[in-house]
Request: fold
Amino acid sequence: MSGSFDERELAVARVYAGATLELASRAGAARDVFEELQGLRAVLDRDPSFERALSSPLVEKEARRGLLEKALRDRASDLVVNTLQVMNAKGRLGLIRAFVEGYRREFEEQNGITEVDVVTAEPLTAEQRQRTERVASKWTGGEVRLVEVVDPDVIGGLVFKAGDRKVNRSVSRELNVMKARLFDRASQQIHDLASARE
Reply:
């Protein structure tokens, strides 16, 4: 359930991402760069004008170079800033989001991290999220990254998937317990709302 990207652009961005991951891995900083790039994604989400300035063909390369240096140098690792500078020099800075996504995918593949989609009727609590991560890790046999989606049509339930994989029996019971708890919580909230209106 990751964001959608043009596959051709993502393929180009993954070249930069793969090279960055290789260099980060050699330095023992692959996870640090992963977290740093997730932070960069949050900055792009918060400040669309920054992203537009970086990706606009109307902004000269030298102006974008200066913007990258001013905004990121000494705030981000040299590896990340230098990669973005190379992308800028090659006219590829418009792929900045695809680069961040490409690094995430490369990093997760390298580290055997499985993306697990969790669809619930309402947001998970911190406790439910931790429990879901434990169950998902048991199910996949490794580290997971939860992608949470709230869908009110999943009344009191939970949909749990990783690609085309189906839940096996050893995990089914735990998921059924979680579903029952979510259902009870929703039922209680409905009851409380009804009582408050009487």
